[in-house]
Structures are given as C-alpha cells and as structure tokens.
C-alpha cells in the first residue's frame, strides 16, 4: 500500500514550480480517452503535446514494453544492443539518413545536431565559421544552447549570457534568409511547421531557398521534426512533402509514444565528424526505449495509417471551420495532418487559455500554441467516435466562453450607458 496520499495540491508543495498543471490529475488512459483521479473521463486532443501518436496503452506497445522489460533495459553505450540497431536500420530505410544518434528528448537531439554542425564547420572551414541561423518564434528545446537558438526570447532571458553566434530571422522571409546566410553560417535550423510558435507551416519556396543558400555557402541544413515527425502531418516526416531534403533531421516526441527517446539522423559523410568521445549520452539508445520506438516506427510508417491521418485532419479542419464561423471565433485554421492551429479572432485575442480551461471542465484535453492559438494534436488513430465526442465537448466549451464574453460585453455597455 502506498503510504503517500497525493492530490493536485501536492504539486505545489513538492515540485519546482516551472509548470502550472491543470487542476485534475490523469491516472489512466486507453486509446484517446483519459480518466482522472476522480474517475472523470476526458477526450484527449493533446496527444501529450504530439507524443502519444498511437494513443494511450496501445496493445502492441504494451506487449513490446513487457517483453523487452523482461530481457534487457540498459547496458550503457560501452556496448551496443540489438533493438537500437534494428531501430536505426528501420529509420534509415525510411528516410534520407545513413547514420543515427539516439538521445532521450528533442532538446538533446537538437543539441547533438547543433554541435555536429559546428564540428563539421570547424573541421572543414575553420573556427570562424560558427554562426547558426534560426527563426523568430521557433522552439528547439530547453537546454541553454537550444533555448538560445530558439526564437522566443522569453525562454532564454534571465540565465546570463547566451552562446554566441546565433542569429534569428523572420520565418518564411526568403529575402531575409538569402541576405543573412553567408560564408560565416555553419547551420540553418528550421521547423517545417512551427509548433510552439503558433502552428505555422513553412512555405515550400522558403525551404527551397534555405536549401539553396546552405548549398551555396557550405552550411548544414537542419530540420527540427521533433513535433512534426513520425506521421503527425500525414507523412512519416514532414520534409517528405516539401521537396527539400535536410542534412540533419531531429526527431523525438512521437518516436517513443511517450517513452523518452529522441534521435538525430544524418548522412554518413557528416556523421564522420562525430568521432569516438566527441559526444555522448548515458541513457540514449537504451534497449527498452529502442524496442518501443522500433514498433512505433513500424506501425506509423504504414501507408494506410498515414492516409488515415490526412482524412482525420481534413475532418477536423472542416468541423473547426464550421465552429469558427458560427461563433466568429477563428481568424485562421492552419497546419497539416493532425497538427492543427486555430488562431483566435481579435474579439478573443489573448484568451486561448480560457478555452483550454473551459474544455477541461467539459471533459476535453486541449492545447495552446501561444496566447492566441488553440492547438490540436490528437492520436493519429483517434476513433471517429472520439473525434466527434471531443468536438461536441469543444462546442460546449466555446459556448461557455462566448456566453461569458457576451454577458461581460452587455454589462460593460450597461455601465457605460448609466455613466452617461
């Protein structure tokens, strides 16, 4: 019997306050449904922030977890293991990559990618070629290096000097990119769809311009596919729908369906610059995580599953568009597959969190992507019935927020009339 009774208030007593979690505690999940500690059910439109691509407690993943858990969990990188070798071969067969490095998170995958890019530049061109180009509103992780490369200053402020040689440009601005990328540039890192920045897709012409500029100046092009990868956009990786192939790709989130694992994928030529001892990790590529990820990749790469993502995404966009028109709610609905952002109109500016809170009251787990965007990233295999039910609960939440706004507006008008 567990001797420690806990509830949501326990968080405030025992945890470092870098998060502000919802007032309920999820304790069990099955498919696209979650139950909290009070037994209440929720439809999950968050996917653990684009992580649980195959839903909660997927039977095939549970089977692999049990089987590998009874064999081997960890041996360190003084040894290799069979599951990580199988996972690397599967990912390389599906992508441009010829070499893989496994870590525990997207931030670590990006850290490895950025370090590799600088190592390549130093060894090929000299120490003066070290500038990294990133983009405003981008997000690449929470280490000091990756948070500095990310284009949201609020996440890097208050930690002292940031690493030098990082430049931020406007996203989707071809002219600015062509002007900035030059002999000093060692790498350009870009998200094919900015997730945390508001679910903003890159213009394919912009990505082509980045590829051309990198080729012209001997820079490495890195695609951060931590959020867009592993089927989220209806393609196994988003780059596959852009006509542009990066030199390095980073992936995490859905790769382990909730088990911590990330990867940096690259070419044989670039990988050769990471010699023995240059970079490392204790847990990265452990057999337990690799076995689970291997099964995730096998399942998600199925063309039928990816077509299902596109179909569900089209349905979700259509239904959101109808709700937006009914309530005058959305300025724009954008994204691909099942990574969708709905930007609020001026009337609801800054109130995305209000809709998330109201949704929770009606049994729906929902995300934001900044103060003005509702973000939808459900399971890639969410049942049609759960999608319908989630949208029904969303409608109730919208009615609640819109109704409260109308009442506040009427009260303000009445006050103004009385003041006259």
Output the helix-strand order: HEEEHHHEHEHEHEEEHEEEHHHEEHEEEH
Question: Level of helix content?
Answer: 40-55%
Task: Kindly report the name of the CATH homologous superfamily of the largest domain.
Answer: Type I PLP-dependent aspartate aminotransferase-like (Major domain)
CATH topology of the largest domain: Aspartate Aminotransferase, domain 2
The main sheet comes to: 7 strands, mixed
Please state the average pLDDT score.
Answer: 95
CATH architecture of the largest domain: 3-Layer(aba) Sandwich
Low-pLDDT runs of 5+ residues are none
Distance between the ends: 66 Å
Number of separate strands: 17
Basic shape? globular
The CATH class of the largest domain: Alpha Beta
Query: Can you count the helices?
Result: 13
Task: Fill in the keyword field for this structure.
420 residues, alpha/beta, Aspartate Aminotransferase, domain 1, Aspartate Aminotransferase, domain 2, 7-stranded mixed β-sheet, 4-stranded mixed β-sheet
Set down the secondary structure blueprint.
Layout: H1 8-14, E1 26-30, E2 33-36, E3 41-44, H2 47-50, H3 59-69, H4 82-94, E4 99-103, H5 106-125, E5 131-135, H6 144-149, E6 166-169, H7 174-180, E7 185-190, E8 193-194, E9 200-201, H8 204-217, E10 220-224, E11 248-251, E12 262-266, H9 268-271, H10 287-300, H11 303-327, E13 330-336, E14 339-344, H12 352-361, E15 364-365, E16 367-368, E17 373-376, H13 384-419
Parallel strand pairs: 3-15, 5-6, 5-7, 7-10, 10-11
Antiparallel strand pairs: 1-2, 2-3, 4-12, 8-9, 11-12, 13-14, 14-17, 16-17
Helix pairs in contact: 3-10, 4-10, 11-13, 12-13
């Amino acid at each position: 019997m567990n001797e420690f009774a806990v509830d949501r208030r326990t968080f405030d007593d025992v945890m470092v306050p870098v998060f502000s979690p919802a007032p309920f505690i999820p304790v069990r999940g099955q498919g696209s449904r979650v139950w909290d500690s009070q037994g209440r059910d929720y439809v999950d439109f968050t996917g653990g922030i684009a992580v649980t691509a195959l839903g909660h407690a997927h039977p095939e993943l549970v089977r692999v977890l049990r089987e590998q858990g009874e064999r081997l969990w960890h041996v360190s990188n003084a040894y290799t293991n069979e599951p990580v070798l199988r996972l690397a071969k599967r990912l390389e067969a599906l992508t441009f990559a010829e070499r893989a490095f496994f870590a525990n998170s997207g931030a670590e995958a990006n850290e490895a990618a950025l370090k590799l890019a600088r190592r390549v530049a130093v060894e090929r061109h000299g120490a003066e070629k070290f500038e990294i180009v990133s983009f405003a509103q981008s997000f690449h992780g929470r280490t000091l290096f990756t948070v500095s490369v990310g284009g949201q200053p609020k996440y890097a402020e208050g930690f002292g000097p940031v690493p030098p040689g990082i430049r931020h440009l406007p996203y989707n601005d071809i002219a600015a990119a062509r002007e900035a990328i030059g002999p000093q540039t060692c790498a350009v890192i870009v998200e094919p769809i900015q997730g945390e920045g508001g679910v903003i897709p890159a213009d394919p012409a912009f990505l082509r311009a980045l590829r051309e500029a990198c080729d012209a100046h001997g820079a490495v092009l890195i695609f951060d596919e931590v959020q867009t990868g592993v089927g989220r956009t209806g393609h196994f990786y988003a780059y596959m729908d852009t006509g542009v192939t990066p030199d390095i790709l980073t992936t995490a989130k859905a790769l382990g369906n909730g088990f911590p694992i990330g990867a940096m994928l690259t070419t044989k030529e670039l990988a050769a610059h990471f010699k023995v001892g240059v970079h490392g990790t204790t847990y990265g590529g452990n057999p337990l995580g690799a076995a689970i990820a291997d099964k995730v990749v096998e399942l998600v790469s199925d063309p039928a599953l990816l077509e299902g993502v596109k179909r569900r995404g089209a349905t979700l966009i259509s239904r959101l568009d109808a709700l937006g028109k009914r309530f005058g709610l959305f300025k724009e609905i954008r994204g691909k597959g099942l990574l969708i952002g709905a930007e609020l109109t001026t009337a609801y500016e800054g109130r995305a969190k209000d809709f998330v809170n109201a949704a929770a009251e009606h049994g729906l787990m929902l995300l934001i992507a900044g103060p003005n965007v509702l973000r939808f990233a459900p399971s890639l295999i969410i049942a049609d019935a759960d999608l319908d039910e989630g949208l029904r609960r969303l409608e109730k939440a919208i009615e609640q927020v819109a109704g409260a706004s109308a009442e506040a507006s009427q009260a303000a008008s009445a006050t103004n009339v009385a003041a006259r």
